[in-house]
Specification:
- With 274 residues, this protein is an alpha/beta fold.
- It has a single domain (2-273), classed as Rossmann fold (3-Layer(aba) Sandwich), CATH 3.40.50.300.
- The chain is 43% helix and 16% strand.
- A hairpin with a 5-residue loop joins strand 3 and strand 4.
- The mean pLDDT is 88.
Length: 274
């Protein structure tokens, strides 16, 4: 464990500017929230100050950190509505240096309410700018859709991290997301970039996983992380215990994969900052 964390710590470059990364895929069940939770935990483990903004009405990221409903007096809905600041809504997790702006069921109606709001695409950006400087990384867990909530995340973000399940229709869904990212870049956020694509639910016993991985790498090249996240029972069990996989079972293959992914993310960030 110490060896893995030590290697990861070597890739850390602290900056005065927070980096905002949206974890997005319009398809559900691809490991998006699991990736956000465990990447955030790995970053916090090496001394980064991390904030997760749970922008998914299902609130799985909040639950995955053991933040029960009673500990969510304010939420990302209040931030979008302008009723609370990010600082007011943020709740400390059980992990040092890792806070979360939780989600509540109020967020499920936000798509409709945002339509009539001023600067409806920039609500989150307006809330984040100037108010997250205490954090090194802000990870936004997006809902599994390409509606106004995800648009707010992409407009607020510096970069997008895309979890992609190793399954037959993976590239089809990815092309739709890429078109959306390009539209956001052209119309709202010219500096938005793709941090990377991570292949999830990889099953080495299944030839399809290898084929999908090869196809995705053929299309996107080095935008695809070397690390692949395997199908792993311990990772899928962890949320029911209100813990990230890295705390639930650090030694399992899934946890080790997320440590490796965090190292790749930090090395890319270091290269960008150079």
């Amino acid at each position: 464990m110490e060896h893995d964390i030590g290697e990861l710590a070597g890739a850390v470059t602290m900056s005065h500017d927070s980096r905002v990364i949206a974890v997005a895929n319009q398809k559900g069940g691809v490991g998006k929230t699991t990736t956000a939770i465990n990447l955030a935990t790995a970053l916090a483990a090496v001394g980064c100050r991390v904030l997760i903004i749970d922008l998914d009405p299902q609130g799985n990221a909040s639950t995955g950190f053991g933040i029960d409903r009673a500990r969510r007096p304010l939420s990302s809905y209040d931030v979008l509505a302008g009723a609370a600041t990010v600082k007011e809504a943020a709740v400390a997790s059980n992990i040092p240096s890792l806070d979360i702006v939780p989600s509540t069921v109020d967020l499920s109606g936000a798509e409709l309410e945002l339509v009539d709001m001023e600067r409806r695409s920039h609500r989150l950006r307006d809330a984040v700018v100037g108010s997250v400087s205490v954090y090194d990384y802000v990870l936004i867990d997006c809902p599994p859709s390409l509606g106004l909530l995800t648009l707010n995340a992409l407009v607020a973000a510096d970069a997008v991290l895309v979890p992609l399940q190793c399954e037959f229709f993976a590239l089809e869904g990815l092309s739709q997301l890429m078109r959306t990212i390009e539209r956001v870049r052209v119309g709202f956020n010219p500096s938005l970039e793709i941090q990377g694509v991570v292949l999830t639910m990889f099953d080495r016993r299944n030839n399809l996983s290898d084929q999908v991985a090869a196809d995705v790498r053929g299309v996107l090249g080095d935008k695809v992380y070397e690390t692949v996240i395997p199908r792993n029972v311990r990772v899928s069990e962890a949320p029911s215990h209100g813990k990230p996989a890295l705390l639930y079972d650090f030694q399992c293959a899934g946890s080790r994969a997320y440590i490796s992914l965090a190292g790749e993310v930090l090395r890319r960030e270091k290269a960008l900052a150079a």
